[in-house]
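Review form for a predicted model. The reviewer records the input and the model, then writes brief findings.
Reviewer: anonymous (R2)
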Amino acid sequence: MAEVISIPRQVLHQEVAVRLRQRIVEGHLAPGSKLNERTLCELLQVSRTPLREAIKMLAAEGLVELLPNRGAVVAQMSEQDVADTFEVIAGLEGQSGELAAQRIGAAELAEIRALHYEMLAAYTRRDLPTYYRLNAQIHTLINAAARNPVLTQTWRTVNARLQALRFRSNFDETKWKRAVQEHERMVELLARRDAAGLRALLVQHLEHKRDAVLDLMRSGQIGVAQAGA
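Model under review:
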């Protein structure tokens, strides 16, 4: 019998948001699909109140849309939305990398290295959920090492909308391998404190992510939002 873990009521909706976000990011809930409260309550073993609070959190992040007469649906982006949003995140990540290379401490660099090796192990196993979780932590730590709270808040807001698409960008084996190689180079440039080099690499890295996502959308492997939807 599975162990029942009690979650304090005041943080329950946050835990529900974490689990719901993971299901969206990993594609268990497809873009454009309706969030059925009864089904999700049964799946997550929670009541409707924390579920609704969690849905509001994800709506604020841009992962969920609250539509009149339809309720909550998983957010769906058009090709132009994707291109525009990746253009912004590429600039933000490039700036994060440039500042991080100038300001990162030894302990932070060691933590990024450790996560990188764990990520490589997940890649070797082709364990995409674990790989993506570690990958996201690395990008978050690079952003944090920039020591700019305004940059961090802006990056978090924009990046939240792209989590599910960044996850799917690794569906193509060749492009996934290229992303891993780019991460190898990121660690090298950070260690060398090469600010300009890391900025350029991160911009290129996000442009490659954008191109991978657009290719998947055009081939029908990712749903595309309809004009006016």
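Findings: The chain has nine helices and two strands.
Further findings: The two ends are 45 Å apart (CA to CA).
Recommendation: see findings above.
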